[in-house]
Design a protein that fits this description.
This protein has about 220 residues and is α+β, with helices and mostly antiparallel strands. The protein has a single domain, classed as Nucleoside Triphosphate Pyrophosphohydrolase. Helix content is about 30%, strand content about 30%. The protein has 5 helices and 11 strands. The mean pLDDT is about 95.
């Protein structure tokens, strides 16, 4: 994806087209499979969203920096859970007080990385994604802010923020395959991206795969 984000007109053209693209049929399963670990391939192919699953939402906040499109992910703190110490998108579990999944994504992003909803626009959603290890359905929302946000992390949940140059760091050409070792000597072979010296794989990488395809569709249409 090669596009210059240096002018307000160029940014407006991009955000208008991205909003329109997110309202169309999404690449969903086909995109997710490109970054699926071996053990998840058959599961992802079904596209099933189990009725018994818990529900959560995440925010992918896009913004221009040095005339290039960026976003952020977080490195989570170590804790007693399946996603301990992993790269994630800002987000979390839907609470009873949240009127919808967008409200969940905005609340969680504000709590975890300090972004303020009235400074950005939510443009749409990516496909809901089921994470079997934690039994959560994730609803990913896409937002755009016209300038680099001021971040303030919640250190109880977040080790650090990692900025990603979407035009350089997470292209399909940058996919790496690694064998990861977990507790009880469990080994998982997975594709992913190296971001901020960390390996981003699993659900986060699969959601990024769909984002990559959507962004490519957008820039192909406006160039």
């Amino acid at each position: 994806m090669d596009y210059n984000f240096s002018t307000s007109l160029g940014i407006q053209l991009f955000t208008d087209q991205l909003k329109a693209e997110l309202a169309l049929e999404l690449p969903s399963t086909a995109a997710h499979l490109r970054l699926a670990p071996e053990m998840r391939v058959e599961d992802i192919k079904t596209g099933r969203l189990p009725a018994h699953a818990m529900e959560s939402a995440v925010l992918i906040l896009l913004y221009p920096k040095n005339a290039r499109l960026h976003t952020v992910v977080i490195l989570r703190n170590e804790y007693d859970g399946v996603h301990s110490g992993q790269i994630s998108l800002p987000g979390g579990k839907k609470e009873d007080s949240d009127i919808d999944f967008k409200a969940t994504a905005l609340r969680e992003a504000r709590e975890e990385i300090g972004v303020v909803p009235d400074k950005f626009e939510v443009l749409g959603q990516l496909s809901p994604f089921y994470v079997r290890p934690s039994n959560y359905i994730i609803y990913p929302f896409i937002a755009f802010q016209n300038e680099q946000p001021d971040f303030l992390i919640d250190t109880t949940e977040v080790q650090r923020i990692i900025e990603i140059d979407l035009q350089k760091d997470t292209t399909y050409e940058k996919i790496e395959n690694r064998t990861l070792t977990f507790k009880n000597n469990l080994k998982v072979t997975a594709p992913g991206f190296v971001v901020g010296s960390e390996f981003m794989w699993g659900a986060t990488a699969m959601m990024f795969s769909e984002l990559i395809q959507v962004l490519k569709n957008v820039t192909d249409k406006i160039q």
